[in-house]
């Protein structure tokens, strides 16, 4: 029994030593990776500085975020009423309405949010969801 405990203890100690060696090696590799990443960044930045051609600028430019826009929702509501009144049956799908608004110079990043904020100004417009599509109907036509 004592012999079995002795062998288990020795094996456990060896495994602990091996684990410690692996962990130390892992830390060294992480430090090397960080150093390589920094060096890579420096090289890439230097390449960006040296390349002034338009093709290089295209390669290194990233998509910028859209600027936050403030809308006059009462004005948009007026345009929606106008668009709905021009339709023959007084109803229009949201995607068609979005296209019409964009033709009139109103751009928005999220149509759903824009319509949600505009609806309080549209008491005479009914919003219906049919499947995945949303339809707006003018009630006083």
Q: What is the CATH H-level superfamily of the largest domain?
A: Winged helix-like DNA-binding domain superfamily/Winged helix DNA-binding domain
Q: Shape, please?
A: elongated
**CATH architecture annotation of the largest domain:** Orthogonal Bundle
Residue runs with pLDDT of under 50 for 5 or more positions: none
Number of strands: 3
Approximately what portion of the residues adopt beta-strand conformation? 5-15%
Strand-pairing-aware structural class:
mainly alpha
**Rounded mean pLDDT score:** 85
Terminal-residue CA separation: 96 Å
- Major sheet characteristics: 3 strands, antiparallel
Q: Counting H and I runs of at least 4 residues, what is the number of helices?
A: 5
User: Main sheet: which strands, in order across?
Assistant: 1-3-2
Task: Compute the CA-based radius of gyration.
Answer: 32 Å
- CATH classification class of the largest domain: Mainly Alpha
Overall domain count: 2
- Write the element-wise H/E pattern from the N-terminal end onward: HHHEHHEE
Q: Under CATH, the topology of the largest domain is which?
A: Arc Repressor Mutant, subunit A
